[in-house]
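Input.
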Amino acid sequence: MHVLSRKRLKQAGEQHPGLEMALDVWYRVAKRARWSSLAEVRKVWASADVVGPFTVFNIKGNQYRLITEINYRSGRVFVRQVLTHAEYDRGRWKTGA
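Output.
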C-alpha cells in the first residue's frame, strides 16, 4: 500500500512520547501490505474497524487511534489523524472539528 502521509505519523510520534515506534511498526506493515478489503486488513490488524468512510486502527495497546481512509482500488492509505483514546471517544474527529 502507498501510505499518505508519513509526516502525520512522525508528527504524532513527536507529540506523544513512546508512540513513535508503534506508528513506525504500523507504517512498515501497511507499506508492505496489499489489502483489498477490510477482511484482509484484519488478518494483520485484527482490531481494525470501519467507522463511516474511515478505517480505525488501535495503536500501542489501545492507547491511541489511527484514523485512515483506505482506497483498496488504488492501493492508497490516507492517514487522517492520530488521537488518544480519550480524544477519539469525544467523537469530534467524525465531523472534522
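Strands lie at 2-4, 49-51, 54-59, 64-71, 76-84.
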